[in-house]
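LIM and cysteine-rich domains protein 1
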Amino acid sequence: MAKVTKDLNPAVKKMSLGQLQSARGVACLGCKGTCSGFEPHSWRKICKSCKCSQEDHCLTSDLEDDRKIGRLLMDSKYSTLTARVKGGDGIRIYKRNRMIMTNPIATGKDPTFDTITYEWAPPGVTQKLVWVSYQEVSRCQWKLKQAAHERAGCGLQGSVGENPKHIDPGLIRGLQYMELIPKEKQPVTGTEGAYYRRRQLMHQLPIYDQDPSRCRGLLENELKLMEEFVKQYKSEALGVGEVALPGQGGLPKEEGKQQEKPEGAETIAPTTNGSLSDPSKEVEYVCELCKGVAPPDSPVVYSDRAGYSKQWHPTCFVCAKCSEPLVDLIYFWKDGAPWCGRHYCESLRPRCSGCDEIIFSEDYQRVEDLAWHRKHFVCEGCEQLLSGRAYIVTKGQLLCPTCSKSKRS
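Predicted structure tokens:
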């Protein structure tokens, strides 16, 4: 059995806005048992006990993550990926897709089930209950491969029967996409891949980059600057990738609707040598990052900000700055490439190396490529204010001479 569900939780109505749940004592994934548990710093985004980041403690819950992404996508052209919460005073929550694959295993009288739950699935996967076994999925994949090769002008021999009518091709695309992701990064419940996704949600899309109420001590003029900053990036840069077969990006998903060529897509795709291809031959679609050919039966990622003449292999849809996969396919378009939210924001405004928040004041401290709010220009060891005093910056750490010396000894 496979199903895709909406992860909507009515408990969101009872949660206060702009506040994280208490996370004291949460174990650190980085320290591997040596940390006594999360102890929040008063203003740094770290644990006082082990000095690791909040991401290493995976402090957020599914509900908090869905609320954060819902807030990010609301008031943008991707608001259709969110749902309004009843009685929530305009709060919207992310309609996160999940896929659950269940295969019955005959073991005597009582059957058991091999179940895999993906905590996230690409947008566009039909959100309806689908019953399917692994064998049926394989048969559907073969039929879809046949159709893809026929469209590309080359044959694929073989017969495996009819595609079961109750299996949605979009679901198969989602499964194919997951198979192309490295196993250690697949968001399967209870695995390192699920924790990796949650850490990336915190790191790439910090809540304090979009919600002023989660920033500390913004002045009135800074608040207005931040609100305009967020409004502008939602309008001009924010995007959500689309998973489709090569040449099918941007096509309507409704059943029975005529599929027209999306704006920006090329009628004749260029071959790898740059010349126009012969329509009688197989069309080649090239990955925008690695320049490798995308097989016609293998899903790729499209960005509507880039136009549908460009596509990426799933493993190549990464941030232009840090080269990390873009979590949940959420990107920010800049300089002809997708960026993660963190690096997009700090490419436009400085980020405080102390509190990790974007700086909206014109009065701040800068040392080489690093920046601090004036009040956060303090030693990371003893936390004394270093404005007008001697300091040492080593590997991104700001230290007073005494703490620097003790670290070396």
